[in-house]
Amino acid sequence: MSADGFGKRLLALLKERKTSQIKVAQGLEVSRTAVNKWTKGGMIDDGNLDKLAAFLGVDKIWLKYGDYGNGAQDSGQDGRNINEVHLQETAEIVTWEWDLLTGAVSYSDNVEAVYGVRLTSNEDFWNLMSGPSKDKLVKGYEKIMREGGAHEMDFKINKDGQHRWITSRATGVKGPNGKVTKLIGISLDNTERKTVELRLSRINRFFNTLLAHMDHLVVFTDTAGEILATNHETRPEKISYMELQALLYQFMLKQADQVAMLREQGPCRITFQHKKMVVSHHADDETQPFLMFHFK
Fold this sequence. Notes:
By secondary structure, the protein is of the alpha+beta class. Helices cover 41% and strands 24% of the residues. It is built from eleven helices and ten strands. It has helices spanning 3-17, 21-28, 32-39, 46-56, 60-65, 111-115, 122-126, 131-147, 191-212, 241-254, 256-265, and strands at 93-99, 105-107, 150-159, 162-174, 180-189, 218-221, 227-230, 268-272, 275-283, 289-295. The strands form two sheets. The chain has a five-stranded antiparallel beta sheet with strand order 2-1-5-4-3, sandwiched between helices. Strands 7-6-10-9-8 form a five-stranded antiparallel beta sheet. Helix 2 (21-28) packs across helix 3 (32-39). The model is unreliable at 68-90 (pLDDT under 50). Keywords: Kinase, Phosphoprotein, Transferase. One of its GO terms (molecular function) is DNA binding. It is an enzyme of class 2 (transferase). Its EC number is 2.7.13.3.
């Protein structure tokens, strides 16, 4: 369930479908740089994972994690074990199953290490979360019972004033009656990832608010000129988004030498196609270069 596995599956799908990263970026309305990072196992948020899986026509759980048991399609295997989810059990992954007919629930022995508390019943489990979190999980389980397949959910649990984020995915198992009578799944502590994701989301909201309040057009691009972020939508600009994108592509192609010098020279005032701008070169924490355009 490594990040590398996700990247390799994505690359294999793009090759199989003869689809370029640019087409994926356009289809999902994200930057090509973001898609490139995903192919290298970079973090992908739930919303983009949903859109990416739909765009490629694959199951999002498989895309992110790899093979899982297709119990929802099988029947008559009343004694199926959670290990048939095809994921190797490790100290970080809790395996569980819930018999819907009897109400009995069982967890792997490492549940206390992952959840921070020993669980022996569903009541123990539900008591760890708020009403909205419980409702969200119940709706997900109901969807599995109605439609089959697999479902992934993030939820927060609280114990003694401390909280953890758990990512859980489940699939249904059909009983002798041909209906889903058991849920089996895996869960893991995703507190670190979720905390980073929420922090980045908050920073992104701050960033977008700052952009929206700037009194001139600002655009961030990759080194090919593709727009990564901009306050264009909040500005009364005469130039359309498509025209702006075309302008930046042309700038990168026709001013390649000057762009190459920006890193050493620092911000530079440039007039291109009657547009006055200040262009500067930067790099993010992963040393990925990007440019910032201030239009005057």
